[in-house]
Design goal:
By secondary structure, the protein is of the alpha+beta class. It is built from four helices and 27 strands. The strands form ten sheets. A six-stranded mixed sheet has the order 1-10-11-8-3-6, sandwiched between helices. Strands 19-21-24-23 form a four-stranded antiparallel sheet, with no helix packed on it. Strands 22-25-26 form a three-stranded antiparallel sheet, with no helix packed on it. The longest helix has 19 residues. It is elongated and about 80 Å long.
């Protein structure tokens, strides 16, 4: 059964200084849900931004978890080549450009941005693996969304590609192939899901917009890092859709109150670039190639767009004071390393609450510990949380709650 809701590109890991595990925020009551088609073309994005007058409410890192599945295991990338790819500047090896990107993406600093997302079973893997590709011999130059769903299901039901619950299947169309629901005018790509062979399958459409309309879906239309502006533009869209498919595979995962998924929040933002030897500019190197790839929303430190992410683990070394009396409020200074904006402080046991948490710098946090009149006497474990990962060894304890 085909799920016609899609997410599109339109024309943090939590770390603990104790063994406490915390889960992500709940959804807001008036938020919008992703359509799967927010991967706007560059030009329609401008109008969409101007028209977006409705207020949105965000919290934490500007994106929320909505209790649905997230792809935790390493993502398996599959390509389905549709149309006449010999027309796509064959001398530049267009298929090789896209395949090299997928083969070298896993465990890269760029893909690591997705490890800041997860669900109760864990965090998204830093690895993504290119598994296989196949060719669809169809000759239609005009595809509906239903046609694209059929291209994917045919590849699986005929065993050209395996039916893989960890897979993301990309229908990559050659120049001149139109998608009637709005390719180049409304979007540059999209992702969605359907059930094939009894398995929920995640898939994406990404087209090659080479031609007069390419500027709507590619940042560079003349020179590009790999000598093929249409294909180089596809690389960024593939990255966008893969990240959204992994973190919001069935539109119940991660998105903000406006319905924007992680990559939507950074669409057409590239950060620092450099001159690529092959032409144009790039912002990352994978394998032996340079690429210009949009940034992704990092779910850490208040949330921000980035080209890479390197997690740092907080370490709580000491606290002052280390004791307080029941029925009082203690102003506590916590000292350690790798404290980040948005970090939280929690105290174990009964009767001690924390407020007024301020991250002064990477090594200092101040907070108020309120000790209830009936607070449990004795040692209480203190946890500093930076984002989400597996538990770390216990931190220093706030040594004593004394009787009045």
């Amino acid at each position: 059964m085909h799920a016609f809701r899609t997410a599109s590109l339109k024309v943090s890991t939590m770390f603990f200084a104790s063994a406490t595990i915390m889960l992500a925020a709940t959804s807001q009551p008036n938020e919008l849900r992703p359509s799967g088609r927010n991967n706007h073309s560059r030009f329609s994005a401008r109008f969409s931004a101007q028209a977006a007058a409705a207020p949105s409410v965000t919290s934490g890192n500007g994106i929320s978890y909505h209790n649905g599945p997230v792809m935790i295991a390493p993502a398996h990338i599959y390509y389905i080549w549709y149309g006449n790819w010999s027309s796509a500047l064959a001398g530049s090896n267009p298929k090789g450009i896209l395949t090299d990107f997928a083969m070298n993406l896993g465990n890269s600093p760029r893909y690591n941005t997705n490890t800041t997302y997860g669900d109760p079973s864990g965090n998204v893997s830093a690895n993504a693996i290119f598994v296989a590709d196949t060719v669809d011999a169809g000759t239609s130059l005009s595809l509906t969304d239903a046609n694209i769903a059929t291209i994917v299901s045919n590849a699986l039901t005929t065993a050209k590609l395996p039916t893989d619950p960890a897979g993301v299947y990309f229908v990559l169309t050659a120049p001149g192939v139109a998608a009637t629901s709005g390719f180049l005018s409304q979007y540059c790509g999209w992702h969605t899901y359907q059930t094939v062979n009894g398995t929920v399958i995640k898939y994406s459409f990404v087209g090659n917009g080479a031609g007069t309309a390419l500027g709507g879906c590619a940042a560079q239309v003349a020179a590009s890092p790999n000598g093929n502006p249409g294909v180089d533009g596809m690389v960024s869209v593939i990255m966008h859709e893969l990240e959204e498919a992994v973190t919001d595979p069935q539109f119940t995962g991660w998105y903000d109150d406006a319905g924007n998924e992680n990559s939507d929040k950074c669409a057409w933002k590239f950060g620092t670039t450099y001159s690529a030897p092959g032409g144009g500019v790039a912002n990352m190197k994978l394998g032996g190639r340079d690429f210009l790839v949009q940034q992704n929303w990092v779910n850490a430190s208040g949330g921000y767009c980035a080209t890479s992410y390197s997690a740092t683990t907080p370490s709580l070394v000491s606290m002052s004071p280390t004791s307080g009396k029941q029925g009082t409020v203690a102003a506590v200074t916590l000292t350690g390393t790798n404290f980040v904006s948005g970090a939280t402080v929690a105290v174990g046991g009964t009767g001690v609450s924390v407020s007024q948490v301020t991250v002064v710098n990477a090594s200092t946090i101040t907070a108020n510990f309120t000790l209830a009149s009936g607070a449990t006497l004795g040692a209480h474990t203190v946890a500093v949380t930076s984002r989400r990962t597996s538990p770390l060894p216990p931190a220093p304890r706030w040594e004593h709650v004394l009787s009045r």
